[in-house]
Design a protein that fits this description.
heterodimer; A: mainly alpha; two-stranded antiparallel ribbon; B: mainly alpha; ABC transporter involved in vitamin B12 uptake, BtuC; two-stranded antiparallel sheet; disordered N terminus
Chain lengths: ~290, ~375
């Protein structure tokens, strides 16, 4: 039972990060109809910037803030410099360009920092506190839950309650009409990319200390898991992404706890295939007529 | 859904029913392809005697990559399905060949027929894996398909570590390959033999693919790519066609992986990472989607670019640490950048540019004559 509680909390903590990362994917998918396969590489780039800043100043929190700013900027730059110019007539084109970005970013990181793992520090202890003899939560888990909670509710508030959020939804939903009504559709798209990339950078900062460390490929498997989470929830649904992230996190935690950590990649693949074959639109998708 | 429609320049975009107007004067497609294969084969033999052993090995590597890129061209360029998992399919072929060759060696079996048998087994096992992925892929579109195949590319190399009793983990397996037959003489260079073996297997695969592309099946592939609904209305079984394209593509990718394993005489999961899958896609896109010649350009790039950057970094005087960092990463950076630029500026790739140039020249030529 102790083990089950521990695995559940660990899974929820991992799942919260997947949820944030999946949310970033969903943000871009809703705004631009692009699945940003470069999200993982962009987030790692932001984490490396944080690493440099923290190493130079000795302050974790300065690095943390800089990572998020770097993520925001990188997202805006990727949209303005690259994605804006891609022909979106075929859904393959943005995917291929994003994969080119993956290669480019990972290679540049490898050239600057080298292809070895670098230790990533966590701001809080990772040993679990015991409540009534049962090891439950580590301070770091609490930090993860709090940060992701703030970000998710902040995004929900922004999209539902603020004029900028309304404009962003309008620009994604009906670009032509929004433009006629005076919405800066291009600017909203860039803002969407920046926000998504910032959330991705935050997720990378939270997840990398719990894994092997900082490496140009550190987010590859996280990306696959987060993509699975987004698909489980449905690419169009932000609440779905959050639930999907928690589900994937729990599943991976149980598989690695009870069956061996080697099997987690296989579990992700099986879950992804199962969801796509049974309910391709995701668990939260309304029944839709097929587009012809 | 026209999946790769926009990847091809609109000018050369083939109609759903066929690539070019049928030209009766050119005779049988099979005979023409056979003639090309014969000429290329003879050329390869001639080249293998004139260049140094290292170049022979590089040419053999190009041939092995060509199998994989040609398979991906059939899938992505002709059938409009994106696969990021071809590196994993190559790994399947490579590990099968390793297991077969080791099994033969353990039982003390020798003979020239063993290698073709292992290659055949590699193709069969990859076809099985490809059929499973293909059945799933036929139900998926666009980014979903990309995501699933990406997961395959990440997961399959990890399996080699999970089941390290069979696959020997990160270390991988060695692939015992017999020396060239004695009939060729005692001093026959090993690299030349490697080129002959891979060249023969690749040419055979190319002949089959080229004929397939020009056949009824090739036309249904393109019809499904250009408009699924129209294809279905024309009586084409869309899902079956997509699975068939995936299986054909997987078979060639498996052969390519098997040949690479035979060339390197070892297999390890590190050689078949996600990067390899991305590399194959890059090679196909940069070479020019939808044409086998594009796949050839892509395969040449895959071998030539790391070599070029290596000699480039040797020209500069760098500290060993910096040189080591550049060594592996510079080709990746150049590949990624080229890919982005090609996708934005010249979606037809190298072959698209060449054929545009060729058409412009021939137009000028005929204008001058008339």
């Amino acid at each position: 039972m102790d083990r089950f509680v521990f695995l559940t909390v660990d899974g929820l903590s991992r799942g919260a990060v997947y949820a944030a990362f999946a949310l970033a994917l969903v943000l871009i998918w809703r705004a631009a109809r692009v699945v940003n396969f470069a999200q993982g590489a962009m987030a790692v780039a932001a984490a490396y910037v944080a690493y440099s800043v923290s190493a130079a100043t000795g302050s974790y929190w300065l690095g943390f803030g800089v990572a998020i700013v770097a993520g925001l900027l990188l997202g805006a730059v990727v949209d303005r410099v690259v994605m804006r110019h891609v022909d979106h007539a075929s859904p393959l084109n943005p995917v291929i360009v994003a994969l080119g970005l993956v290669l480019l970013i990972q290679a540049v990181l490898g050239m600057v920092y080298g292809n070895e793992f670098r230790p990533a520090e966590a701001p809080f202890g990772r040993s679990a506190l015991t409540v009534g003899g049962v090891a439950v939560l580590s301070p770091y888990d609490l930090f993860v839950f709090a940060t992701i909670g703030v970000v998710v509710s902040g995004l929900a508030w922004m999209f539902a309650r603020t004029p900028v959020g309304l404009r962003m939804r309008a620009a994604a939903f009906a670009p032509e009409v929004s433009r006629l009504l005076g919405v800066n559709v291009g600017g909203m798209l860039t803002l969407g990319w920046a926000l998504a990339s910032g959330v991705g950078a935050l997720a990378a900062m939270l997840v990398i200390p719990t894994e092997l460390g900082l490496h140009p490929h550190a987010m590859d498997l996280v990306f696959v898991s987060a993509f699975t989470a987004a698909v489980v929830g449905g690419l169009d649904s932000p609440p779905g992404a959050v639930v999907g992230g928690l589900v994937v996190g729990l599943l991976l935690s149980y598989v690695s706890g009870y069956a061996g950590s080697d099997l987690t990649p296989l579990a992700v693949l099986v879950l992804l295939l199962a969801v796509l074959l049974v309910r391709p639109g995701g668990l939260f998708a309304p029944v839709a007529a097929r587009r012809v | 859904m026209s999946a790769t429609g926009a990847v091809l320049p609109p000018k050369n975009r083939p109609a759903a029913t066929g690539d070019r107007p049928v030209d009766r004067r050119r005779g049988s497609t099979l005979l023409r392809h056979l003639a090309v294969v014969l000429v290329v084969g003879l050329l390869l033999v001639a080249v293998s005697y004139t260049v140094e052993p290292f170049r022979n090995f590089q040419l053999a590597t190009v041939a092995a990559y060509l199998c994989a890129t040609a398979g991906l061209t059939v899938l992505t360029g002709l059938n409009g399905q994106l696969s990021l998992g071809h590196g994993a399919l190559m790994a399947t072929g490579a590990y099968t060949v390793a297991l077969c060759q080791n099994a033969f060696a353990d039982r003390g079996m020798t003979g020239g027929w063993l290698l073709p048998l292992s290659l055949g087994a590699a193709i069969v096992s990859t076809v099985a894996v490809g059929a499973v992925v293909g059945v799933a892929a036929a139900r998926l579109r666009g980014p979903y398909l990309a995501g699933v195949t990406l997961a395959v590319a990440v997961v399959v190399p990890a399996l080699a570590v999970t089941f390290d009793g069979v696959f020997n983990g990160e270390q991988g397996l060695s692939v015992p390959v017999e020396p060239p037959p004695l009939a060729l003489g005692p001093y026959f260079p090993y690299e030349r033999w490697q080129l002959w073996v891979t060249g023969a297997a690749t040419l055979l695969a190319m002949l089959l693919l080229a004929n397939l592309i020009r056949s009824r099946y090739g036309r249904t592939f393109r019809a499904v790519r250009d408009d699924e609904v129209a294809a279905r209305l024309a009586g084409i079984h869309v899902a079956r066609t997509q699975v068939l394209a995936f299986v054909v593509s997987a078979a060639t990718a498996g052969l390519g992986g098997a040949l690479l394993a035979v060339l390197a005489q070892s297999v390890s999961p590190g050689a078949f990472s996600l990067t390899l899958s991305l590399f194959l896609l890059m090679a196909v896109v940069i070479g020019g989607l939808g044409r086998l010649t594009g796949a050839l350009w892509g395969a040449v790039l895959l071998v030539a670019l790391p070599d070029l950057t290596h000699s480039l970094t040797e020209l500069l005087t760098l500290s060993p640490a910096v040189a080591q960092r550049l060594e592996g990463n510079l080709p990746l950076a150049i590949f990624g950048l080229t890919l982005i630029v090609v996708m934005i500026a010249a979606p037809g790739g190298v072959q698209g540019l060449l054929s545009r140039l060729g058409r412009a020249l021939s137009a000028r030529w005929s204008a001058r004559r008339s």
